[in-house]
Sequence to fold (541 residues):
Amino acid sequence: MRACYSVFRLKLATGFQYRSAALAGIATQFFWGFIIIMVYQAFYSQPLADPPISLTQIVTYIWLQQAFLAFIALWFRDNELFQLITTGNIAYELCRPSGLYGLWYAKLLAQRLSSAVLRCFPILTVALLLPSPYRLTLPPDPATALLFLLVLILGLLILVAVSMLIYISTFITMSAAGSLLMFGVAGEFLAGMIVPVPLMPSWLQTIVYALPFRLAADFPFRVYSGHIPMDEALATIPIQLLWLAALVWIGRFTMGKALRRVVIQGG
Amino acid sequence: MITVSGISKSFKVARRSSGFGNAFKSLFRREYTEVAALSDVTFSIGPGEIVGYIGPNGAGKSTTIKVMSGILVPDGGTCSIMGYTPWLDRVQYVRNIGVVFGQRSQLWWDVPVIDSFELLRDIYDVTDKEYRGNLELLTDTLDLGDLLRTPVRQLSLGQRMRCEIAASLLHGPGILFLDEPTIGLDAVSKIAVRKFISAINKEKDVTVILTTHDMSDIEALAQRILLIGKGKLLYDGDLDAMRAKYGAAEGGETGGGSAIEEALVNMYKEYEIS
Fold:
């Protein structure tokens, strides 16, 4: 535990060094945020039926997506870990007296956290001050805000557990590109990153609700705007915990298997 | 202290000839050859020994080190080090060993060395007092001083290697595996590393297993050598005896190498592993 905490702290401190990357990220995310909001504005100006989610809620959804991109993007990766596996530097990690899963999990968590902390405050502050169709609204009440934070953190833990599977698959495939692309594209779509989940056709929603991806993005964002009422949100927390436990178990199990037949690449 | 008996390990290697046609064929049927990296390797090492482990490239030196440090699971054979089987009791076992892979790095690239050291302290759960003691000793003997506060990416290879060796000894292991620790180092750094190895062996009674291609490393440090070739252990014995047996004959051609290297080449020839 002490080891995991130590890795977490060091990676967090390292992450805070990358200020220019954060600035560039913020600029990109504003650009994206505006473009996507404009697209939805155009859609909502010609409504054919009663929309399942209001434009204000969509705008909130999009700004939160941009602010917490590092929490929810599956393509956000640690190349160091991939290199460790494909070049054989993992030899060193394997002569440590601690499980690899915990150490890597802590590392990935810290990386996402440091990146998100650097980016989210400027984005949220500016988005809260924008003129009206673009403005990020505050959550309806403080309790909702707290609940949002809780489910956001749980979602982050789930997402890191999912991303661990990408790294573990690299032991077998020796290349990160494939799993990264597959998890990245499918995972992001199923998390509601491309089309917000309430706007999906109902058959697709059934699939999305059965999978864990939306629990990291779509779910917390709709809790924030009040689109998911509080009692429903509270009822979903056990499902989040269940998914988290299952994903961590699968990760540990497959990692154990992969390590038993691991070949250290290179001399 | 270390008993290795009958260890074997083979790897599956995909092979094909050059050209598009062969590449296309291998889409459907891939040919694998089994390469025996180790076959029936047996030896034992007592506490406080320094053993030089030598052999040509690809002989299986690194594989042996990886098996002994619990990273690789061998196909057959047994190994008992300080009462542990490395690959079965990995987590408990690795607390007692230090490993340096000369061609790899265990330090975090973007942060000062001391940050990596403190991380290792927490990973190995070393008490503060022990950590301070070890760090002080290592800083003095390896002359780390200012290096500790420099980011790793700005260290020279020699400086980095000194830090790598220190990193592997912070938890005060009883056994140290060194896999080519002097590769690519200049004369000064090489001698510093050698001095340090023999100091740590004398002062803290650390057992050292050292692989290298530089015979002067072996000459300076080890009394006993193990020679491995094509996965088989060929020679296990005294360095002086090897020198006496295989050393260049009086007035023989020396080809420009030092006497010990000549002896090694003669030995490779005798065992047909060059």
Summary: The CA atoms of residues 33 and 62 of chain A lie 6 Å apart.
